[in-house]
Structure formats: C-alpha cells, structure tokens
Amino acid sequence: MAIHFGQVIGGHAQALQLRGQRAEIIAANLANVNTPGYQARDFDFSARYDAALAARDDGLALDLDSGDLQYRVPHHPSGDHNTVELGVEQAAFAQNATGFQASLTFLQMKLKGLAQAIQGQ
C-alpha cells in the first residue's frame, strides 16, 4: 500500500512555505522602518494559500515584481513618505509567526501519527 505524503500532510507544507516568505517580507519592512520613501509591502496570505491549494501548487515562490505583493496603506502617513508602521509590522510578524508554529505543530503531529501507524502502535 503506497503512502501519498501530499494527502497525509494536507496543505501544511504550503502554509509553512508561504509563512516563511511572508516573514522575510515583513522583516524587510521592519529593517527599513527609518528609510525615507520606503514602501511597506505584504501579500494576502489567505488568498495566496487558497489559490495554491486549488491549483495544487507546490512551487509557491512569490514573484516580487508581479502583483503578488501589495503595498501597505499606512494608518498614519509619515513626512518622509515611509509607509512602515512599527506596531503594525510587529503585529503582522507575531501573527505570522504564530501561524507558522501552528502549521509546524500540525505537520509534526501528522508525521508522528504516520510513524506510529507504520510501526504498528
């Protein structure tokens, strides 16, 4: 009997990959909090994840020059035209990290259950 790991792990692998990419984008925003004219960017995780699942897309690399990334609209515009807001970015980073940890935990539980089934426990 063949094991199809794609069916076993569900969309957690895609979620981890997308969350890793989102962490890089948010970290770049945070690194440029004091750069005049820097435009904060992000992407809609839910929409990208749903699209990847619908297309059964394993190559989830975002094209940074296409429409995958959107510019964040600031709540309080700054005088130097920098749209990075420290609190907003920190909250987005924390939320993304929590989602990453949840997906990783689910993936670990799935693989642990699979290992136990293979061992006959």
TrEMBL record:
Keywords: Bacterial flagellum, Cell projection, Cilium, Flagellum. The lineage of its organism: Bacteria, Pseudomonadati, Pseudomonadota, Betaproteobacteria, Burkholderiales. This is Flagellar basal body rod protein FlgB. The keyword Nuclease does not apply. It is found in: Bacterial flagellum basal body. GO terms for cellular component: bacterial-type flagellum basal body, rod. The keyword Isomerase does not apply. Residues 12-39 form the Flagellar basal body rod protein N-terminal domain. Its main location: other. The gene is flgB. It comes from Hydrogenophaga borbori. GO terms for biological process: bacterial-type flagellum-dependent swarming motility. Structural component of flagellum, the bacterial motility apparatus. Part of the rod structure of flagellar basal body. InterPro entries: Flag_bb_rod_N, Flagellar_basal_body_rod_CS, FlgB.
